[in-house]
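Please fill in the sequence for the structure shown.

STRUCTURE ENCODING:
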């Protein structure tokens, strides 16, 4: 079964073509918007890597380019698009009803449209990618996995906010969490590598990228996570503020005549590492500035590491212990310094990082704790697309079986 996975983000579109159930990665690529608003498209086949660039950034143009690469003789993948059996999508927010892998229909898209305000940075482009792909390949089974689905096992005591209960009853204002597919893959793969039983382990999964979140996974289920109703809550991020006193937002509006849109802009795009450092929302750029003596950059990194570390302690308490730390995402995988700072002074929890392994194995799938440490620490390269491919392939099989029975 050929499964094409499309991951449409706010400023990039990733794709991977898998042969399932063997989980063979046949072709992959990512199209990213650069600082000038233009497109860089990187493609990797089993034979070669190529880079293409063009002016502007258009979702439809990128998807057209992806489909052309699938049938390009140079990549030796497919002879025609009819050989794509299933298209799997990452979907941002499922609300209370989006609890798993589902077939994408017109009615589902209409329901998703109602949830755009819960993830205004990501949902519009996510929906655009889904709609464009369905039009370009209309005769294929399309399914998707909600980014919030893995966290539907959160208990009421973890997902409720301290506001009148009626707001949850009437409007479903509660913690939903995000990065669910990434946390699910990272925690499962990390426990496998560490030799732990996933169904009886206490795991903290740390997804660190431009967006970042931490999840507490006990006995195979997410029991708490740092992001909330929207992707703003939680740890400090590239340009998002993370946890903030709600009174600050009211104060800004009352005393500085800021509109809702202006406050939204501040907490989503002008805060986080960028807001504190004044340098960038890119961890690498802030780290470089800090190494060159920029005091604000050093402060931003200190806040970033500290906020994440606090969640480790909180989630160890929530689970009654800790067996495994899993680091994933661009920063989690590729920044030895971030992992070192975040894990420092956590020996009382049994966390003892091996500096040698942390540095030498940076960027790879690896175990990096000290030999006799109680808590396993594992680097896991992010692979949301494989998890999506597994789930949509399984759904497609079930649907086919139901049709034949």
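FILLED IN BY: designer on duty
SEQUENCE:
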């Amino acid at each position: 079964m050929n499964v094409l996975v499309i991951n449409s983000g706010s400023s990039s579109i990733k794709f991977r073509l898998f042969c399932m159930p063997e989980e063979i990665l046949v072709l992959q690529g990512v199209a990213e918007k650069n600082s000038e608003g233009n497109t860089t498209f990187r493609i990797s086949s089993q034979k070669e890597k190529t880079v293409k660039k063009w002016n502007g950034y258009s979702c439809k143009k990128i998807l057209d380019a992806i489909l052309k690469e699938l049938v390009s003789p140079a990549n030796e993948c497919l002879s025609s698009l009819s050989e794509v059996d299933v298209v799997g999508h990452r979907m941002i927010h499922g609300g209370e009803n989006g609890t798993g892998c589902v077939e994408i229909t017109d009615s589902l898209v209409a329901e998703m449209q109602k949830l755009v305000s819960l993830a205004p940075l990501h949902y519009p482009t996510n929906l655009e990618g889904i709609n464009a792909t369905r039009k370009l390949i209309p005769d294929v089974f399309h399914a998707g996995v909600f980014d919030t689905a893995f966290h539907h096992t959160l208990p009421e005591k973890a997902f409720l906010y301290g506001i009148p209960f009626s707001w949850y009853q009437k409007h479903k204002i509660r913690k939903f969490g995000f990065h669910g597919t990434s946390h699910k893959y990272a925690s499962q793969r990390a426990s496998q590598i560490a030799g732990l039983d996933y169904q009886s382990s206490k795991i903290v999964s740390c997804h660190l990228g431009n967006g970042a979140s931490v999840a507490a996974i006990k006995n195979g289920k997410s029991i708490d996570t740092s992001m909330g109703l929207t992707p703003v809550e939680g740890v400090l991020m590239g340009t998002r503020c993370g946890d903030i006193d709600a009174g600050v937002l009211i104060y800004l509006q009352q005393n500085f005549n800021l509109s809702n849109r202006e406050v939204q802009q501040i907490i989503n795009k002008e805060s986080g590492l960028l807001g504190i450092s004044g340098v960038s929302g890119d961890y690498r750029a802030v780290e470089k500035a800090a190494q060159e003596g920029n005091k604000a950059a050093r402060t931003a990194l200190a806040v970033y590491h500290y906020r994440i570390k606090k969640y480790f302690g909180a989630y160890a308490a929530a689970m009654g212990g800790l067996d495994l730390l899993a680091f994933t995402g661009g920063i989690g995988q590729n920044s030895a310094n971030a992992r070192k700072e975040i894990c420092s002074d956590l020996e009382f929890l049994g966390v003892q990082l091996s500096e040698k392994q942390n540095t030498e194995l940076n960027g790879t799938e690896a175990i990096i704790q000290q030999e006799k440490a109680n808590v396993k620490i594992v680097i896991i390269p992010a692979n949301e697309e494989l998890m999506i491919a597994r789930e949509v392939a399984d759904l497609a099989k079930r649907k086919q079986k139901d049709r034949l029975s």
